Each structure stands twice: as C-alpha cells, then as structure tokens.
Amino acid sequence: MKPAPLKAEVKKAFKKLLKQKGKQRHIEQLAVELHHEVFAVTDCLACANCCKSIPPIVTGQDARRIAKYLGMKEGDFADTYLRVDEDGDQVMKATPCPFLDEQNYCNIYEVRPKACAEYPHTDMRDFCKHASLHLRNAQLCPAAASIVNRIVEQCP
Ligand code: SF4
Ligand code: SF4
Q1: pLDDT tens, 26-38?
Q2: Cα(23) to centroid of ligand 2, in Å?
Q3: What's the pLDDT score for residue 139?
Q4: Pick from 109, 133, 119: which is nearest to 35 by CA?
Q5: Torsion over CA: 45, 113, 58, 81 (sign)
C-alpha cells in the first residue's frame, strides 16, 4: 500500500530545512539514524512498491554480474530485460520487475542492481542535496515517507 501523501506544510518545511547550511550536518546524521530505525521495523516483503513501480537503473557492472548469475550472455540479458530510458540510463524493461516473485522476494537478491540495494537512498551521502528525490520517493515508499516526516518533526 502506498504511504499517505505528505502534507503540503511538511514538504515545504522539509525543503526549507535541507537548504539551511547550518543544519545540514545534523540532518544528514539524523537521516542515517532514522533510516536504520525505520528499516528495523519495516517489512519490505509486505510492500515491494519499489519493485512493482520503479524500473531500477542497471549499470554495466550490474548487468554483467546478473547475467553471469543467470548463466546468460550479457547481450542476451540486455536484450531480454533492459531498455534505455528517457534520461539515457539503462533500466529494467518491465514493471513490476520480472525478478519479483509472487511472495515479493527478489529472485536475484544476491546480485541485484546497486540502485535496488540502495533504495530509497535515505542513508545516502549528501542527503540534503536531494530533497526532490526524497519527496518523490516518499510518495511511494512508506519508509521514506516516515523518515521525511520524522526529520521535519525532530528538527526545530
Ligand atoms: S524500500 Fe520502501 S517501497 Fe521498497 S519495499 Fe521497502 S518500504 Fe516498500
Ligand atoms: S531486481 Fe530485485 S530488488 Fe530490484 S526491482 Fe527487481 S525484484 Fe526488486
């Protein structure tokens, strides 16, 4: 299920907070703490919104690793599963992701794309430089929404 939409005042406050140079260090530390706290109690297997809706970027390195794991030639893997999107990035061709099974497990979990392993990027370096990304992810990912809400609540 998608998270409740963020309130307009939360979005506004979040964007404003992330622009305040004097608070950025604190917010980046807080985001990492909240990321671990929130994901400790988040059941991604009950959600899988990201795998169902966002075609992840698949780098050349990802593609080589996954193709090897599947016992496929890299070219055949690319032809079967990948496309180039409007930004020029190589991404999974289909959504929901073809590697998502009916129980929401990833069939290539050990070798999944880096973008999947890092989603929703709430523990990323330079968290404050990516307010739009976090707000976009919070529309889909309940964990990201919770982290955004809690940053706004906890930062005066
Ligand atoms: S990362 Fe977010 S969107 Fe993806 S499964 Fe977990 S809670 Fe859901
Ligand atoms: S590769 Fe795995 S983790 Fe990534 S979108 Fe597909 S099912 Fe989800």
Answers
A1: 999 999 999 999 9
A2: 34
A3: 96
A4: 119
A5: negative
124 close to ligand 1 (CB < 6 Angstrom): no
N-to-C CA span, the chain: 30
Q: For residue range 88-140, what is the model confidence (pLDDT) as tens digits? A: 999 999 999 999 999 999 999 999 999 999 999 999 999 999 999 999 999 99
pTM of the model: 0.94
Residue 116: burial class (beta carbons within 10 Å; 0-12, 13-18, 19+) = buried
> Which residue's alpha carbon is at the smallest distance from atom 8 of ligand 2?
51
Ligand 2: nearest atom to the Cα of 100:
7
Q: How far apart, in whole angstroms, are the C-alpha atoms of residue 122 and residue 17?
A: 15
Rounded to an integer, the average pLDDT of 70-75 is: 98
Look at the alpha carbons of 57, 37, 52, 111 in this order and tell me if their dihedral is positive or negative. Answer: positive
Show the tokens assigned to 80.
Answer: 């079967």
Contact criterion met (CB below 8 Å) for 73 and 67: yes
- For CA atoms 150, 133, 28, 38, give the dihedral sign: positive
Structure tokens at 9: 């005042």
Q: Which two tokens stand for residue 54?
A: 């966002």
User: From ligand 2's centre to the CA of 16, what distance in Å?
Assistant: 33
Determine the pLDDT at residue 156. Answer: 74
